């Protein structure tokens, strides 16, 4: 047979899904005519369909070697690149630029001109160019938009390269103002047609796919040219914009674009799938074992994707995986690749169902009833398959990549409020899947409500998307240009309106009252009378009349919206007077009246935010933005709520979207800085706060938060300066003063006297004015009574303080004590629930003032109030200023509170020696040992010291870099000099990825003579298990000074790693020494810097001794006071009882 015959046969086999036969036919054709580029191109298409993108690219490169200007080969090359996760953003962009240089730039006109009317606000002529005007995914995405366009604003010209028209094509043709078939025309001819039609904005659809025509844009036929529904840049500099959204294209992502990304609130849109089968119960309820599934094109099933899915099946015993896409899994090579990868990962073939039948749409959708959870592939994720799964009630779990093509599903999940199904890592992907199938009831609940959620979301809002696109088209049009009486009303109602306009309010009111006396249900009179009452400030009266207007005309939108707006005004009045609960009541009434009024949802969100109900606030504010995407204040407050919930990526997406239109909004920038700070992006946060101060130099919040960022970077002088500046501007700024009290503890240069003086200044400025002249208590002075203990904390959640606190508080003697918890917790979690189960009384304090919280404590009759870690996080030390309990104790703080109303601080004999120099306003109560922590069950084995294999010792610190002052770094440099060849490893979450932090560390070390090659600054965040596993690479841990480690010290010791510390004179500088003493390791606590260096050198010089210590240390820790939670509970029980008896006997508060 001839080349053309084999080519035709291969094409037919490919279209029928017979990929192996198609590949064989392509190879036969190439053998007959190796000089013909289309043979290689066809082979590339087949290889891609088989899931072999690298081989596909090689085939297309062979085609280009034969014909360097072969458009089909370039398009195949660019398409295959999307399926690879081993190409960098730069490599992919360079490929597109190569396409532009070879194929497009020669077509660019030198002096483009257009016969368009340069009017900024006229009706625009929009041209859409596509080969997908039919029953095609892109066509289905575009149909809701095209049919919803406001034809008073835009005129639609559709350019159609359609080879097989269908009923959907006919529908598009009917919707068009002008339908232009372009099949068979050259790109130049199509561009000429567009130019002749005087199109203002040309939208090129899905340019790199199917038969679409990206090179038409190279001729610049329209003043504004936009790429839509392409999953990456076109690479063409003649394209002005690419339509995307903040999740698809994060503002600081690595992906590069030739166009300007325009971020809609949400990008993807799809019509409701009607008809479609009903959503069914999860098959897990019938089968007892879960079925995972993916109906994605097998080209998207990279080996990495398959290996991850195999690991999921391994972790969920008995689970199955169902794969289907048309009939492609009937291809032996596709099936073989899938099963081979699965088998290599330990998953048997019988657990994989490869469906090979192509089915009608309804039958295809029905198959979703046979899977519990849909698995999204990567790096090229689903889109249509994601929508179908969600529509059929099946949750989709995705792992977004750095490129737009890998974030499609994440964007869709964000649109339906399911961002918790978006994984941060492969491990997180597995955790989400396992969590979903672990609770069949919750999965069934999610499944039942998912279609309704999708239908109500922006995914099905073609009208909303059309309005957004119209605004984009208009804005880009105006940007291009910048660069190159109501009818008279009859009778008394009309008179009332005219009198009101003239400011004659009493007469106007009389007219409306007369009109209503004659016709009590006159809707127009009621609405206008209520409006007048509103203007007069008689808001409650206005509400009652508006309610009558709504009752008189229930279908009229204006009275309903006016009533809702007035209810919102009442709510805002109460909110401004700190009557938050009353305000929320008004706002809820407004929402009930007009749920489509953006301000009703917005104000409810603000009220919930004020009351500390952040998750609920976020839901309301998100709804407000869906109703009014340009609602800047809703965006700001939603960002604030999401930051408080630690949903930083979502916060950034919202804030960046609105900053694009309001680049100088200081509030948005400040909140974006807070999100960056929460993510550990401290350099970025500092830059954003500086930007706020450039716009608004008096913004003390920005000054304070800049201090927080600089503190974490270890830049103490600058952070202290920020806090002091904030206090100079606002002496009552408690947050700034608390930041200052924390920051000075990190700085070794502050003397004991200066530290104490600053704490007393805090008392003077913020606390003492609240001290009661004579504290009065109703508590019976019975020394042996059952005591009510109150614990006040923001850390009753998964937090180091809680991990120290929970192990002993749950073992307190409940025959002696009732436990009350006062929870300043904005994002409760599983650990919060553990505390709640312990509680005799549980009180949420978020959103309440210090005085209100003190009142709660007093009303509860608390005998002993324990304030946890008062200066840190969101804790509430000033509650104690109101003296709500007879006995007030601080626990878990690292220095004095500075408050005279605090009776005791819990410590131990090492942290606070009896004759120490540190000053306290409280009485130090010295336990035998202070620190306690539950055993780290499930931690990896410590392993041998790594120096045995490496030949050199590795020192390390996994402490917060805020603790790494220059003095600490110089001390560690001396330790490195004392042990030639040794290395230093520094890690804390992702914070050493900060350029300025890394530079500071390296600069100090270089000045001390340490080669940077000896330092490892790790910048990646890992989960708890893998964090602990990192200690397997550490020989000796180095402690920070003057602010020691605590959690990091315990973790190191548990992992068998000795910790060397330098004893200071303050409680915070003796924390590690306190932990070493019960282990018999006090010889690791140095008395001076020289001794610190000697200890490090002695440990490094004895690998065998280090190995023996490492092998025994975990057992030693587990058997020591550090893990004896029952003994610690008894000790604290005795302390609390003794303090109470002392108060009873003395008859006084101190």
From TrEMBL:
Q: What is its EC number?
A: 2.4.1.255
What UniProt keywords are attached to this protein's entry? Glycosyltransferase, Repeat, TPR repeat, Transferase
TPR repeat coordinates: 3-36, 37-70, 489-522, 523-556, 598-631, 666-699, 700-733
Task: Tell me if Transferase is a UniProt keyword of this record.
Answer: yes
What's one GO MF term for it?
protein O-acetylglucosaminyltransferase activity
Pfam families referenced in this protein's UniProt entry, alphabetically: Glyco_transf_41, TPR_10, TPR_16, TPR_19
Sequence ranges assigned to domain O-GlcNAc transferase C-terminal in this UniProt record = 119-268, 292-464, 778-928, 955-1130
Top-level lineage group: Bacteria
- Give the pathway annotation: Protein modification; protein glycosylation
Q: Which PANTHER family match?
A: PROTEIN O-GLCNAC TRANSFERASE, UDP-N-ACETYLGLUCOSAMINE--PEPTIDE N-ACETYLGLUCOSAMINYLTRANSFERASE SPINDLY-RELATED
Similarity-based family: Belongs to the glycosyltransferase 41 family. O-GlcNAc transferase subfamily.
Put simply, this protein is called protein O-GlcNAc transferase
Source organism of this protein record = Paramagnetospirillum marisnigri
């Amino acid at each position: 047979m001839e080349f053309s015959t084999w080519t035709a046969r291969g094409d037919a086999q490919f279209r029928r899904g017979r990929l192996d036969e198609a590949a064989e036919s392509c190879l036969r054709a190439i053998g007959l005519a190796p000089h013909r580029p289309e043979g290689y191109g066809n082979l590339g298409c087949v290889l891609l369909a088989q899931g072999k993108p690298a081989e596909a690219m090689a085939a297309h490169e062979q085609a280009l070697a034969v014909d360097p200007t072969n458009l089909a080969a370039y398009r195949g090359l660019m398409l295959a690149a999307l399926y690879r996760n081993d190409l960098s953003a730069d490599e992919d962009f360079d490929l597109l630029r190569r396409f532009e240089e070879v194929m497009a730039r020669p077509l660019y006109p030198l002096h483009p001109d257009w016969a368009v009317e340069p009017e900024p606000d006229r009706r625009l002529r929009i041209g859409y160019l596509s080969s997908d005007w039919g029953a095609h995914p892109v066509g289905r995405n575009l149909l809701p938009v095209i049919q919803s366009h406001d034809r008073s604003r835009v005129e639609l010209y559709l350019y159609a390269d359609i080879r097989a028209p269908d009923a959907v094509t006919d529908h598009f043709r009917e919707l068009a103002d002008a339908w232009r078939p372009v099949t068979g025309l050259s790109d130049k001819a199509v561009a000429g047609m567009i130019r002749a039609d005087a199109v203002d904005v040309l939208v090129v659809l899905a340019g790199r796919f199917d038969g679409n025509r990206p090179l038409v844009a190279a001729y610049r036929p329209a003043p504004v040219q936009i790429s839509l529904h392409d999953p990456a840049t076109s690479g063409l500099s003649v394209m002005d914009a690419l339509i995307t959204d903040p999740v698809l294209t994060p503002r600081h992502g690595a992906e590069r674009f030739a166009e300007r990304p325009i971020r809609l609130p949400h990008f993807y849109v799809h019509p409701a799938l009607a008809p479609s089968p009903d959503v069914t119960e999860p098959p897990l309820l019938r089968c007892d074992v879960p079925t995972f599934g993916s109906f994605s094109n097998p080209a998207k099933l990279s080996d990495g994707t398959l290996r991850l899915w195999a690991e999921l099946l391994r972790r969920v015993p008995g689970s199955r995986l169902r794969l289907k896409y048309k009939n492609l899994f009937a291809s032996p090579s596709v099936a073989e690749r899938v099963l081979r990868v699965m088998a290599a990962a330990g998953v048997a073939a019988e657990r994989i169902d490869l469906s090979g039948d192509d089915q009608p749409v309804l039958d295809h959708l029905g198959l979703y009833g046979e899977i519990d959870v849909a698995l999204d592939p990567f790096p090229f994720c689903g889109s249509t398959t994601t929508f179908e799964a969600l529509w059929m009630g099946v949750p989709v779990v995705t792992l977004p990549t750095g490129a737009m093509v890998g974030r499609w599903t994440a964007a869709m999940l964000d649109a339906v409020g399911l961002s918790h199904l978006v994984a941060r890592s492969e491990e997180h992907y597995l955790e989400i899947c396992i969590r979903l199938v672990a609770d069949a009831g919750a999965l069934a609940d999610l499944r039942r409500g998912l279609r309704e959620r999708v239908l109500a979301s922006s995914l099905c809002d073609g009208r909303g998307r059309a309005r957004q696109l119209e605004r984009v088209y208009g804005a880009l049009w105006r940007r291009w240009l910048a660069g190159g009486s109501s009818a008279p009303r009859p009778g008394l109602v009309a008179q009332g309106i005219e009198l009101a306009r003239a400011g004659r309010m009493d007469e106007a009111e009389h007219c409306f009252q007369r009109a209503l006396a004659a016709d009590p249900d006159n809707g127009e009179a009621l609405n206008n009378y209520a409006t007048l009452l509103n203007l007069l400030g008689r808001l409650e009266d206005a509400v009652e009349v508006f309610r009558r207007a709504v009752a008189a005309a229930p279908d009229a939108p204006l009275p309903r919206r006016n009533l809702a707006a007035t209810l919102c005004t009442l709510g805002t009045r109460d909110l401004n007077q700190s009557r938050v609960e009353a305000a929320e009541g008004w706002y809820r009434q407004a929402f009930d009246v007009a749920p489509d009024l953006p301000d009703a949802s917005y104000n409810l969100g603000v009220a919930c935010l004020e009351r500390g109900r952040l998750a609920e606030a976020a839901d309301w504010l998100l709804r407000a933005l869906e109703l009014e995407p340009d609602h800047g204040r809703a965006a700001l407050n939603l960002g604030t709520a999401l930051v408080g919930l630690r949903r930083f990526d979502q916060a950034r997406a919202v804030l960046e979207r609105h900053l694009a239109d309001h680049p100088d909004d200081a509030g948005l920038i400040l909140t974006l800085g807070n999100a960056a700070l929460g993510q550990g992006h401290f350099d970025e946060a500092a830059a954003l706060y500086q930007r706020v101060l450039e716009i608004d130099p008096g913004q003390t919040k920005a000054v304070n938060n800049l201090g927080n960022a600089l503190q974490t970077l270890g830049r103490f002088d600058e952070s202290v300066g920020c806090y002091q500046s904030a206090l100079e501007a606002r002496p009552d700024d408690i947050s700034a003063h608390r930041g200052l009290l924390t920051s000075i503890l990190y700085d070794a240069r502050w003397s004991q006297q200066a530290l104490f003086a600053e704490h007393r200044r805090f008392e003077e400025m913020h606390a003492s004015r609240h001290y009661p002249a004579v504290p009065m208590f109703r508590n019976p002075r019975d020394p042996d009574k059952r005591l009510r203990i109150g614990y006040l904390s923001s850390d009753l959640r998964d937090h180091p303080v809680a991990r120290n606190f929970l192990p002993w508080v749950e073992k307190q003697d409940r025959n002696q004590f009732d436990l009350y918890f006062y929870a300043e917790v904005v994002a409760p979690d599983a650990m919060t629930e553990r505390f709640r189960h312990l509680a005799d009384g549980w009180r949420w304090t978020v959103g309440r003032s210090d005085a209100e919280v003190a009142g709660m404590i007093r009303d509860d009759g608390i005998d002993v109030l324990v304030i946890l870690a008062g200066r840190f996080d969101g804790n509430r030390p000033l509650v104690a200023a109101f003296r709500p309990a007879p006995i007030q104790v601080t626990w878990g703080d690292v220095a004095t509170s500075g408050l005279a109303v605090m009776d005791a601080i819990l410590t131990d004999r090492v942290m606070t020696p009896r004759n120490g120099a540190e000053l306290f306003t409280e009485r130090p109560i010295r336990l035998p040992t202070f620190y306690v922590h539950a055993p780290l069950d499930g931690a990896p084995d410590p392993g041998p010291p790594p120096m045995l294999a490496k030949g050199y010792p590795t020192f390390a610190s996994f402490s917060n870099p805020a603790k790494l002052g220059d003095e600490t770094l110089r001390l560690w440099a001396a330790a490195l000099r004392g042990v030639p060849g040794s290395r230093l490893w520094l890690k804390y979450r992702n914070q050493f990825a900060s350029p300025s932090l890394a530079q500071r560390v390296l600069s100090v070390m270089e000045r001390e003579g340490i080669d940077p090659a000896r330092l490892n600054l790790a910048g990646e965040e890992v989960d708890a298990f893998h964090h602990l596993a990192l200690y397997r690479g550490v020989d000796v841990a180095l402690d920070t000074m003057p602010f020691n480690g605590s959690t990091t010290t315990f973790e190191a010791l548990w992992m068998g790693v000795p910790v060397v510390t330098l004893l200071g004179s303050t409680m915070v500088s003796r924390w590690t020494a306190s932990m070493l003493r019960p282990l018999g390791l006090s010889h690791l606590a140095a008395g001076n810097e020289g001794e610190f260096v000697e200890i490090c050198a002695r440990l490094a010089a004895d690998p065998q001794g280090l190995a023996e210590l490492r092998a025994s240390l975990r057992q030693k820790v587990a058997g020591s006071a550090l893990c004896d939670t029952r003994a610690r509970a008894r000790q604290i029980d005795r302390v609390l009882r003794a303090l109470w008896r002392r108060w009873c006997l003395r008859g006084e508060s101190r």
